[in-house]
Amino acid sequence: MNTWVTLRGFPLSIRLLVVNQLGVNIGFYLLVPYLAGYLADDIGMSVAVIGIVLGVRNLSQQGLFLLGGSAADRLGARSVIIAGCALRAVGFGLFAISASLPILLAASILSGLAGALFNPAVRTYVAQAAADRRAEAFALFNVFASAGALLGPLLGSALLLVDFRVAALAAAAVFAALTVAQAIWLPAQPVTSSEATVWQDWRTGIADRRFLAFSVALAGMFALQTQLYLILPMQAEHVTGQPVAVAVLFVISTVVTLALQMPLTGWLQGRWSRGTSITVGMAVMGAGFLLPLLRVESAPPVLRLVPVLAAAILLTLGVMIAQPFVLELIPAFAGHGLTGTYFGLFYLVSGILAAGCTAAVGAAVGAAAGAGVPAAAWLLTAGVGVASAGAVWLLRRGGLLTPAPAPVSAGVS
């Protein structure tokens, strides 16, 4: 109830984008989790080629976040949001119409580019439209994004009973509908230029040591969130021997988010500083990954799942505590007309570091394939959470999380 009351208290533009985020995640998770299986089983591609197709999509998105953020600053967030959704509709549609490698690569590039445009732009729009209620707005985003991430795979698994191409067309239709809805109802915002070149804007952000330190410190948040789709499902299935345990994991995580995100964010706003919330959130995320180290092999399968479920719940709680305030702080670093650029830079820097961390976790798991997730992987992920919490605490002690006059772009006199 609190979620709906809060949502109704925002202007139409925020309500539209929050519901839009639900649709974005439904469309994305309707298709992407099943893409590798389709390429391998239906088309017969080798693992190496599948890696290229999936890697191109990730690289197109991660590598172009900065470009998407700058586009939002210069063209207006509304235009870039619409373009991002339209490109993803085209990209997902291409997955349905052809199995040739060139078309699949084009589809991967377009869908990745769409994310690089959409993600910084929608957060830039929300940061501007929500004003002093940014934390609440980003908390709502987390609620609806989580719901979409649960509903998407459920819908996708049902459509796969018909054909993967049907699922791809359905995903494309979702993004096409979102494109039309935003083109009709999403109001335009004033575009504030930094009065500098794009390169000067980028140089301003890269030279902002406060912000780079913040981005590096929070890379752990993305790295640990990824484990909800990597080591936690692997361990859940390993300890129970039942694939349904993975579904239980996702359902519990989503229910916790839907029930607690808005009350928790409201409670924290009245009691803790943003720096404290982020520090505690990261520590909670890291601590959760110690729980699967508990030895419960002799217990019944249901009880063996408890440490993994508890880890997923603590991970979810940590994200709920930290993430709204992380996203709220990013515009405080940005100078005039640079909000999108700073969101893009944040996702670029933290995303690259998180990918490296996830690769290290994957290597630790690969070394013990078939025996469940090894202790080294749990200790590594727990260490990432603690290190991120410590880094944020140091930034807070140094006054680097306190809103201050943001850097001015090099082209402004």
Protein model, in words:
The chain has 413 residues and is mostly helical. The protein is built from 19 helices and no strands. It has helices spanning 2-8, 12-31, 35-42, 47-62, 65-75, 77-97, 101-130, 134-160, 164-185, 198-206, 209-217, 219-226, 231-240, 244-269, 274-288, 301-304, 306-333, 339-366, 375-397. Mean pLDDT is 88; it is low at 405-413. Keywords: Cell membrane, Membrane, Transmembrane, Transmembrane helix, Transport. Pfam families: MFS_1. InterPro entries: MFS, MFS_dom, MFS_trans_sf, MFS_Transporters.
List keywords for this structure.
ABC transporter, permease protein; MFS_dom; MFS_trans_sf; transmembrane helix; 413 residues; mainly alpha; membrane; 78% helix; disordered C terminus
Layout of SSEs?
Elements: H1 2-8, H2 12-31, H3 35-42, H4 47-62, H5 65-75, H6 77-97, H7 101-130, H8 134-160, H9 164-185, H10 198-206, H11 209-217, H12 219-226, H13 231-240, H14 244-269, H15 274-288, H16 301-304, H17 306-333, H18 339-366, H19 375-397
Helix pairs in contact: 2-8, 2-9, 4-7, 5-6, 5-7, 5-18, 6-7, 6-9, 7-18, 8-9, 8-14, 8-17, 11-18, 11-19, 12-18, 12-19, 13-14, 14-17, 15-17, 15-19, 17-18, 18-19
Transmembrane segments: 12-32, 38-56, 77-97, 103-126, 138-160, 166-186, 211-232, 244-264, 276-294, 306-330, 342-369, 375-395
Organism: Micromonospora qiuiae
Membrane topology: Multi-pass membrane protein
